[in-house]
Amino acid sequence: MAMNHTISGALRGSVVEEDLELTTIELSRACRASEHDIELWVVEGVLQPRGESRESWRFGGESLARMRLATRLMRDLEINTPGVALALDLLDRIAELESRLGR
Amino acid sequence: MKYKDYYETLGVPRSATQDDIKQAYRKLARKYHPDVSKMADAESRFKEINEANEVLKDPEKRAAYDQMGSNWKAGQEFQPPPNWDAGFEFRGREGGASPFGAGGGFAGQEGFDASDFFESLFGRRGAAAGGGTRRRGSAAGEDHHAKVLIDLEDSYRGAERTITLRAPAEGPDGRLVMQERTLDVHIPKGIRPGQHLRLAGQGNAGLGGGRAGDLYLEIGFNPHPLFRVEGADVTVDLPLAPWEAALGATVDVPTPEGTVQLTVPKGSAAGRKLRLKGRGLPGKNPGDLYALLQVVVPKAETDAERAAYENLAKAFANFRPRAHSQR
Questions:
Q1: What is the pTM of this model?
Q2: Measured between alpha carbons, how far is B137 from B184 in angstroms, rounded to an integer?
Q3: Cα separation, B101 vs B107, whole angstroms
Q4: Residue A78: closest CA among B122, B321, B55, B28
Q5: Stretch 14-53 of chain B: residues touching chain A, C-beta under 8 Å
Q6: Which ipTM was obtained for this model?
Q7: Apex B221 CA angle, B217 and B225, nearest 5
Q8: pLDDT tens figures, B81-129
Q9: CB B234 within 8 Å of CB B152
Q10: In this predicted model, what pLDDT tens digit does every residue of A1-50 receive, in sequence order?
Q11: Which among B124, B121, B1 has a CA at the least distance from the CA of B63?
């Protein structure tokens, strides 16, 4: 296979979790999920966007990691959306208890 | 290349039904999924399990794999016999660009990461689960994800990292070529493990004039010999002599920004955490640094040292370390 080589200069990115809010389209592109999938996760309470209407939804940067985690669990463990939502809630609880244990 | 026994990986006999395989896979996947499991080797175990399932769940691939015979042992040197797969056709086998490869300081990528053994049997395309499909006409380039490992010190100071990415792109003749790109990326001060850096327009090139996708870098930290990171907080173990813990002391504590002096209060027990406020990862809400106290008991080797312990025993004649378990 042919191999091209390019070098570009130093790049500055944005820290998604701190600097960015994502639209539904940006989130769907970044997670390779459909906008319909994103709506399902919102209905399930896994994602909590700001904004009243679907058109004006804005997702906090942490939604990216959460959505990717949800997608991986669904794909790899073959569980449905309520199952993934439950797993995420339990993972959150474990993380909270572990941090309380002070480990 | 070593032979892989996919049945052994899933813990099922060669005679297993498709349902048995599905059940075994699901059980193991839940146990070893790297997002769920805390086991150190979860990621590599999960890869093996996933690969075994990828072959055994698909009746065509399973039949082809079975045809090589059952005399092979896991780990045995292996070359696929010539024409071993005659008569089998794996969907999408040819035209093989992997969706996104990464080298250099990279770990992890989308989809399923196949072993050489798998690729020698089923080709690279067989592994491109959920990979980029090629569209006709103009299309926006896809966003891409890659993982970058940095050192703790990089987050304290900010840093530059050179990373190498491989991704399919459209060549001058319209055919897909693997393009390797080297990017110098600024790692912002205060970035935390698990956070993502978005580099606008650095994903896949768009086709036919479509906009380029974005590149998302997930930041991971290399394990550090002294410090552990959780969110923005950093923990360091602080070993103390018994008399330092009992009487109090001022001791040197290593921090990622250099050594600082810390006053250990008298009567400190092992397991106690002393907080150095704001000395965790920097940022708008800087984290804290915790010194986790440990008490190290010296061995009594000389007569003088033994006498010292004996004096201690006399002085603490009423000390009952196991009082809680005695009635």
A1: 0.71
A2: 32
A3: 10
A4: B28
A5: 26, 29-30, 33, 35-36, 46, 50
A6: 0.78
A7: 165
A8: 666 665 555 544 333 333 333 333 333 334 466 777 887 777 654 444 3
A9: yes
A10: 444 444 445 888 889 888 889 999 999 999 888 999 999 999 988 999 99
A11: B121
Cβ A70 vs Cβ A88: under 8 Å: yes
Task: Please answer whether residues B132 and B203 qualify as being in contact, where contact means their C-beta atoms are separated by less than 8 angstroms.
Answer: no
The full 3-state SS of B251-285, as one line of letters, equals EEEEECCEEEEEEECCCCCCCCEEEECCCCCCCCC
The greatest distance separating any two alpha carbons of chain A, rounded to the nearest whole angstrom, comes to 54
Distance CA B13, CA B17 (A): 9
| A91/B36 CB distance under 8 A | yes
Q: What is the mean pLDDT of chain A?
A: 85
Residues 6 or more apart whose CB falls under 8 angstroms from that of B69 comprise none
Q: C-alpha distances in angstroms, A45 versus A73, A80, B302? A: 16, 14, 66
Tell me the one-letter amino acid at B197: L
- Collect all residues of chain B within an 8 Å Cβ-Cβ radius of residue A78: 26
Distance from CA of A34 to the nearest CA of B (A): 13
Nearest by Cα to B14 from B60, B69, B58: B69
With a CB-CB cutoff of 8 Å, which residues 242-271 of chain B face chain A?
Answer: none
Could you count the other beta carbons within 10 Å of the beta carbon of residue B138?
11
